[in-house]
Amino acid sequence: MKILDGRKLSNIIKEEIKKEVSKRSSKKKKIPHLAAVLVGNDGASLTYVGSKVRSCKQIGFLSTLIHLKSDITEKKLISELDKLNQNPSIDGYIVQLPLPNHINEERVLLAVDPRKDVDGFHPTNFGRMVLELPSFIPATPFGIIEIIKRYKIETSGKNCLVIGRSNIVGRPISILMSQKVSYGNATVTLAHSRTKNLKELTLKSDIIISALGIPEFLKVDMVKEKVVVIDVGITRVSDKNNSKGYIIKGDVDYVNVSKKASYITPVPGGVGPMTIAMLLQNTLLACKRKD
Known about the structure:
The protein is of the alpha/beta class. Helices cover 40% and strands 16% of the residues.
């Protein structure tokens, strides 16, 4: 069994980006500038945005955090996004999800300029990705693809099962894995809450990508020998013995499934760090497109 170390790989990618930023600086080219819009004070969102800001500083990016009150109106929020759309110094920005219940996420994401949509959520970018045209790939699927490429995992002709059909992870990664590219050419099945006989599917799968959000859902008796397992799940589980009061669990029973797997991502330290690295990669791409 080989661990797919997303933390180590993300640091390698950040170092590659840092070197490119340094070269841009020496040539007096624009330094990439990433902005993050955070509405309210959700603990997980604060932690995640904070990590993004620290990563920007680490690799030499400029960063801006726009922290708005939780009771902001949808109209006012969209007005703030329009300012970012019109600001030439901002190369890309993200709107941290989830948003408060009184705000329509779809309308907000549609307000993002596709040229600055480094999260890859805008329908324009999603559609271009489906058609295999240049686009911003959603950061988490992008991170999964980069893990597959850099660890040289064979995907061509393999049975790949994606568990979860969200527009953020499940749907895009199912499309990417089926495309006629070096990291694709897999035979993909997309499973979800209405899927029957899921265990039959998991036992036939060479590659399983789980983005379900149910802690330790995938058990050892559900996978075959030498399976490749990519765990996207990140769930806080109460734990009184932990100083934080919780621990992070993935979708996979890691301790037991890892005994059968040929490759497996840990949680934490697998896909999570790669999501941030690829967000930075998208921001660099957005900046370079202006050159």
